[in-house]
Amino acid sequence: MLAIIVTGHGEFTRGILQSAEMIFGKAQKVMAVTLGPNESVEDLVNHYRVAIQSMQPVSELLFLVDLWGGAPFNAAQQVVAQAPEKYGLIAGLNLPMLIEALTIQDQPLELVVPHLVRAAQGGVRHLDLSAQDDDED
User: Fold this and answer.
1) Where is the PTS EIIA type-4 domain (predicted)?
2) How many domains does the chain have?
3) Which helix (H) or strand (E) holds 22?
């Protein structure tokens, strides 16, 4: 089973994981790891290592990060670089991505990553009420 670390700035990650579990149910081998206001990238790398250790055994791991290039991304990138064949990283975390990740957690990382990128993109939509059918009177 693919282990997942949901991470980002502040309490966002705990909240999005809680929301996903309200919809999907309790997740296994999934942890929210947050970056506090006074924490560094090094602190976060240590938090990730503790989380990974607590989820053992871990054969594959995916980081779902809130923002490309931020401290949580940079810390995750350091961890992924140590085992790129079994660790992955996706930025732009949203609720559709996380719910989809929970539903396909039994699949290999190489299949999960492209699927989640598509799921996250598909979760961004616009309600256009001006495009209503002109036949309605």
Assistant:
1) 1-124
2) 1
3) helix 12-24
Residue 72 within a domain: yes
Within a domain: 101: yes
Gap between the Cα atoms of 13 and 35, Å rounded: 9
Any idea what the CATH number is for the domain that residue 51 is in?
3.40.50.510
One digit per residue, the tens of pLDDT, for the chain of length 137 reads 999 999 999 999 999 999 999 999 999 999 999 999 999 999 999 999 999 999 999 999 999 999 999 999 999 999 999 999 999 999 999 999 999 999 999 999 999 999 998 888 888 888 888 877 655 55
Q: How far is CA 60 from CA 70, 100, 112, 135, in A?
A: 23, 17, 11, 53
- Domain extent for 34: 3-124
